[in-house]
Design a protein that fits this description.
Length: 244
């Protein structure tokens, strides 16, 4: 399988697959494909794994892609402005990502649901207490909002990150949530009450912007529902004699 990632902050990954290869992706992430690509919805891993994905807020079905009559291409994009990154997995290695980070993977990669082990992380982790666990042999592509920043932590090295900004980390990394020290800092520091604490060894990936912060920044500029009229509550604004 060959791939190309194009774009800056609205990235797409285009995969080139031969007839003996198969890939699978999050439902709804395909952007375009060549005419010889076949796709079909599959409940990969059976009913229980599909149910686990549904419980995590994902779709029960994933979409599988194959090509016929020669090499085909298929392209995928994330659900928000952001970055796409390939993760190379080998046997015995696990990589954990926040839910919604998975985009597309080779058939030899397994994607399953994992639960955060620490109580603090479960209740205050920002992204919930359910993670996606990636394992196997092959390449998987993840996506997130904004740009990626990577760190390779040494044993016992600690990095504290804004809750919700962590995208993924090696299975060797310890992950927990810790309360910010100081009452004034907690309530008036503007950085929230909890921070994500990651301890090495292993690689971690964080995002420069998360969807929650993006939604908060855009909210003042979204049209208000006040003053709507007509069927379906569609707001009409008259500017220069034109209705839009």
């Amino acid at each position: 399988m060959k791939y190309k990632i194009s774009g800056d902050n609205l990235q797409l990954v285009t995969l080139e697959i031969s007839p003996n290869e198969k890939i699978y992706a999050e439902a709804g992430s395909m952007v375009y494909q060549s005419g010889n690509i076949n796709m079909g919805a599959k409940m990969r891993g059976g009913f229980l794994k599909g149910l686990g994905r549904k419980f995590a807020g994902e779709t029960m079905f994933l979409t599988e892609f194959t090509s016929t009559g020669g090499t085909g291409i298929v392209s995928f994009g994330g659900n928000a402005p952001g970055t796409i990154k390939p993760i190379e997995l080998t046997s015995g290695k696990e990589f954990l990502v926040q839910k919604d980070a998975f985009l597309v993977a080779e058939d030899s990669v397994d994607m399953s649901i994992a639960f955060q082990k620490k109580l603090g992380a479960a209740f205050f982790g920002g992204e919930g207490f359910i993670l996606e666990k990636l394992s196997g042999n092959g390449t998987v592509f993840i996506h997130a909002c904004g740009d990626f920043v990577e760190f390779d932590l040494k044993p016992e090295q600690v990095l504290k990150v804004d809750t919700g900004s962590v995208v993924g980390w090696d299975g060797t990394v310890t992950y927990d949530i810790q309360r910010v020290k100081g009452i004034k800092t907690m309530f008036f520091g503007g950085e929230g009450i909890f921070l994500t604490t990651l301890k090495g060894p292993g690689k971690i990936i964080i995002q420069s912007m998360n969807l929650g912060n993006l939604a908060t920044a855009l909210r003042p500029f979204l049209p208000s529902s006040r003053g709507t009229s007509g069927s379906g509550g569609i707001a009409r604004t008259v500017v220069g004699g034109l209705t839009r």
